[in-house]
Specification:
The protein is mainly alpha-helical and 83 residues long. Helix content is 46%, strand content 7%. The longest helix is centred in the first third of the chain and has 24 residues.
Length: 83
């Protein structure tokens, strides 16, 4: 067998991966996060809700049970749904 079996498909996939990597880096930069192993949409969701409602994000980005403390001191756990 000669590798790669489908060089055009491989090039397309590697190009898409590079596009994703650059877009992910731009999103993390907009969120003021130097790096993240978390799903970038989870990170974005937390920052969007904080921008809408105010308050303070949890000091730890992997905080259990809550992600945001509102100005009235209520705590909110933020989830997002992928359809």
């Amino acid at each position: 067998m000669t590798l790669p079996a489908d060089p055009q498909r491989l090039a397309t996939l590697l190009g898409a991966l590079d596009d994703y990597r650059q877009a992910r880096r731009a999103l993390l930069t907009a969120l003021r996060l130097p790096a993240s192993n978390r799903d970038p949409l989870a990170e974005l969701s937390e920052h969007l809700v904080q921008a809408l409602l105010g308050g303070e994000l949890a000091p730890s980005r992997v905080q259990a049970h809550w992600d945001l403390t509102l100005p009235d001191h209520a705590r909110v756990q933020i989830k997002y749904l992928v359809l």
